Amino acid sequence: MGATYRALCKHGYASLRMQDIADESTKSKAALHYHYESKHDLLVAFLEHLYEQFEDDIGADCGDDPATRLVTFVEERLTPRGDGQKEFQTALLEIKAQAPYDEAYRERLAEFDRLVFDRLRSMLQTGIDRGVVDDEIDPEDTAAFLVEHINGAQIRHVTVDASLGAARNRLRTYLTEQVLTGSEAAGSGE
Question: Coiled coil: which residue ranges (predicted)?
Fold first, then answer.
C-alpha cells in the first residue's frame, strides 16, 4: 500500500501503471498481478486501506470538551499532512473523478464521506446536549454543510492552489460565530 501511495504521488491516477507500483516496492509486477488482477483492483484495495487508516485517525481522542473536539476535528481535515500530500490529494481527486462511472470507487469514497458526516453530526449533537453548541442548529444540516465545505476546500486547494489555511480560518470563524455558544466560542480558538 505504501508503494501504491508513492507511485500515485509520482505519476497520478491517469498515468499510473502496475509497473510504477512495482518499481516503488520490493515486489515484481507479476507478484502484484498475483494479488490484484488489475490496477483498478489494487486501487480499490488501496482505498479500503486508506479508509481503515482514516477511521483509526479520526477516532483519536481530541479531549473531553465538545467545542474543542469539534474545532480540532474540522481543522485537522484542512491541515496538510507532510511531504507529497498535495500530489496525493491530486491523485485522489483523479480517482474521485472516476467515481460517477465506477461503482467500486464510488462506494469506497462514500464510506469516507459517511464517516466524516457521522462523526461531525455526533459531535454537534453531543455539543448541543452539553450546552456548548447552539441548540437552534440542526446537527444533520450543519454536519452536511461542514463536509461540503471541507471537501470543497480540499478540491480548491488541489485545482487552483487555494489556501487551506484560509479555508480553515473561515471555517473556525463560522464555528465560533454560528455554531458554538457564546462562552465556548470565545475559548475555542486557543
Answer: none
pLDDT in tens, 175-189: 999 999 975 554 444
pLDDT over threshold 60, residue 96? yes
CA atoms within 13 A on the CB side of 56: 5
d(CA 148, CA 83): 25
In this structure, which CATH number among 2.20.25.90, 1.10.10.60, 1.10.760.10, 3.30.1310.20 belongs to the domain 1-59?
A: 1.10.10.60
Q: What is the mean pLDDT of the chain?
A: 89
Q: Does domain 61-190 have CATH number 1.10.10.10?
A: no
For the chain, residues classed under CATH 1.10.357.10 are 61-190
Can you give the pTM of this predicted structure?
A: 0.85
**Distance between CA 18 and CA 190 in Å, rounded?**
46
The mean pLDDT value for 127-156 works out to 96
Q: Angle at the Cα of 44 (from 43 to 50), degrees rounded to 5?
A: 85
Q: Which residue has the cell 500530489?
A: 87
